[in-house]
Amino acid sequence: MLCKLIKIITGENIICFTDNEENDLILKPSINIKEPVIINSVVIPRGNMAVETHIMSKWIKMTKSDEVKIPSRNIITMVDVTDSVEEQYRLFLEEYLNRQTEFEDIVNPSEDQLNDLLETLESLEDEPSDPRIIH
Q1: Which of 27, 83, 99, 126 lies 20 to 30 A from 107 at CA?
Q2: H-type helices in the chain, by residue range?
Q3: Mind listing the pLDDT tens digit for each residue in 69-82?
Q4: Which fold has domain 2-126?
């Protein structure tokens, strides 16, 4: 898969993986992209200068699939990204996946995790409480 930066007619800049090349925008009515991430630019004033930085976030969240079809008519341009941008993109996806896994563990704990929690709660019940604490 190729790592591309896509500018769409809404003005959004999307970095993604795709099997499509720039010529496919003319030849195909739509293209499939995978792992789309939106790039937002932020300008931060620093004294007499301004520093521009970019923030990555998932483009379409809460979906079952990480693949999206975009009509070619909605794409202004599609270009290759530099090696350093692709590296940052891959690091972002890795970190995002790790956070999703941590979230899933919290929302859907395993039976072992639930048993550990119950044991901890039971052990707390066995400890004598301090009569001076009221709550």
Answers
A1: 126
A2: 24-27, 83-107, 111-126
A3: 999 999 999 999 99
A4: SH3 type barrels. (2.30.30)
